[in-house]
Specification:
The protein is of the alpha/beta class and 464 residues long. Helix content is 36%, strand content 20%. The strands form four sheets. Strands 8, 12, 13, 14, 15, 16, 17, 18 and 19 form a nine-stranded mixed sheet that branches. A six-stranded antiparallel barrel has the order 1-2-5-4-3-6. A two-stranded antiparallel ribbon has the order 7-9. The protein starts with a helix and ends in a 21-residue tail after the last helix. Bound molecules: adenosine-5'-diphosphate and magnesium ion. Residues 165-349 form the AAA+ ATPase domain.
């Protein structure tokens, strides 16, 4: 090795060693303002995203993250409450790039944003490979294309909004319209190998009920749940979203078809907003800072197809539409990043039809290409009937439409009750892709599109 190259290497190594955990660099807390901790002393050693631990009076170590610098001070935010931390408290530098060691033994378990178990069970096994909590997606050119259909076990989505392996979809709805319920149905009924579910910023009671009642033992069997409730710090809530993806990436690399569900991306965006505003970033749209809109694609892009030979991460992300305003900035941003959106409609839920999917306002961008021609024809036919009924619904309800005046409208009215029935599905009612097509064709008096398609799974095989 040449002399300059050698010294270059040594310099590199020294830098690496400086960044190693355990190599103790200290600073001192010089101010605390709200959630923001200012420290002095180790300025040159830190960059944004690095981790520190502030030592409280009772020796508790409070993990923090560097969120910015101002006027010669380093700004930290804590992952835990700041109780017991005062001026002059010691700050030690922790590992620079936080990682997780997921393993198959995580299935069936509930973990927090640090990947530590919170279900009262035994310690988790550690896998061999480190996964960066803030991992990056594989470079676009090394990724496989979006694959074949993934059976999500929800009839209206399977048939009208078919999701392919590696696709990313948003579920948009106001509160209480059934987002969480749809996710629990998918967790129990999908044919994916592994489900990684991130519960970000929900109330503690909701998260608990969801895990214990909606998922139950059956839903948990092949699932890992990452949870950060609304009472946790914004850093914990934001990191729960990153950790969800990191765990999904582990299973993807094991060649598994992973279904990654997140409830909700809005709470992730809100957590990032709190962090940015505390660090002094000026707000842009509705109080959301530019960083929020930079972080959203970085998070959501991590779902998607893996490299050749790997599995894929199919992502379904819920978006809370505040005040049922589907044009608020987070909805808009997320809709632009994803390959489709599923809109849940309060009016439909109020009529008692669950899942309250508004088929006409929802779209799966990959569906037309992954469907066979007969499947597309069947779905288009049903959509047209629904659209016609919707256009005319006012007149029909008022009794102003005279039957016989228009053949298409007559048919729409005729098939409406059957379609409505088809779209509703009880929580514990499992259904398969093939079953959906067969049933839809049957009710529209058409041929089952899969009957003469040799590549289709045998109809009736996967009847739940
Ligand atoms: N498939 C369903 N069958 C029956 N009721 C449902 C269904 N989905 C949702 N609901 C009803 O809607 C309520 C709110 O659903 P939830 O999933 O908690 O909404 P969100 O997560 O959007 O706030 C549930 O408590 C339940 O009463
Ligand atoms: Mg919910």
């Amino acid at each position: 090795m040449s002399e300059p190259l050698l010294s270059e290497t040594i310099r590199g190594l020294t830098k690496e060693i400086e960044r190693l955990p355990g190599h103790t660099l200290f600073g001192r807390v010089s101010a605390i303002q709200g959630m923001l901790v200012e420290i002095g002393g180790i300025l040159g050693q830190l960059s944004v995203g690095d981790r520190c631990r502030v030592i409280a009076r009772d020796q508790r170590r409070v993990p923090c993250e560097v969120v910015g610098f101002a006027e010669g001070k380093t700004l930290l935010m804590p992952f835990e409450p700041l109780d017991g931390i005062g001026l002059g408290a010691r700050v030690e530098v922790a590992d620079a790039d936080p990682v997780l060691y997921p393993a198959d033994g995580w299935l069936g378990r509930v973990v927090n944003a640090f990947g530590d178990p919170v279900d009262g069970g035994p310690p988790l096994p550690a896998g061999e490979r480190a996964y960066a909590i803030r991992g990056r997606p594989p470079p676009a050119h090394t990724r496989q294309r979006v694959g074949g259909k993934l059976d999500l076990g929800v009839r209206v989505i399977n048939t009208f909004l078919t999701c392919c392996k590696g696709q990313r979809m948003g579920i948009f709805a106001g509160s209480g319209v059934g987002k969480s319920t749809v996710l629990s149905m998918m967790t129990r009924h999908t044919t994916a190998d592994v489900i990684v579910l991130g519960l970000v910023g929900e109330r503690g009671r909701e998260a608990r009920e969801f895990i214990e009642d909606d998922l139950g033992e059956e839903g948990m069997r092949r699932a890992v749940v990452v949870v950060a409730t609304s009472d946790e710090t914004p850093l914990m809530r934001r990191q729960a979203a990153y950790t969800t993806l990191a765990v999904a990436e582990y299973f993807r690399d094991q060649g598994k078809e992973v279904l990654c569900l997140m409830d909700s991306v809005t709470r992730f965006a809100m957590a990032q907003r709190e962090i940015s505003l505390s660090a002094g970033e000026p707000p842009a749209s509705k109080g959301y800072t530019p960083t929020v809109f930079a972080e959203l694609p970085r998070l959501l892009e991590r779902a998607g197809p893996g490299r050749i030979g790997q599995g894929s991460i199919t992502g379904l992300f819920t978006v809370l539409v505040e005040g049922d305003d589907h044009n608020e900035p987070v909805s808009d941003a997320v809709r632009g990043i994803l390959d489709g959106h599923i809109v849940l409609d309060r009016a439909i839920a109020e009529r008692g039809r669950y899942p309250a999917v508004n088929v006409l306002r929802s779209v799966s961008r990959t569906m037309p290409d992954c469907n066979s021609e007969p499947e597309n024809q069947l779905v288009d036919r049903a959509r047209r009937l629904m659209a016609t009924f919707e256009d005319m619904s006012e007149l029909i309800r008022l009794g102003a439409y005279r039957s016989g005046s228009n053949a298409e409208v007559d048919q729409a009215i005729h098939y409406q009750p059957g379609l409505d029935d088809f779209l509703s599905q009880r929580k514990d009612d499992a259904t398969s892709l093939a079953d959906g097509y067969r049933r839809l064709a049957g009710l529209l008096d058409l041929d089952d599109p899969n009957l003469d398609d040799p590549t289709a799974p045998p109809t009736g095989a996967a009847d739940g």
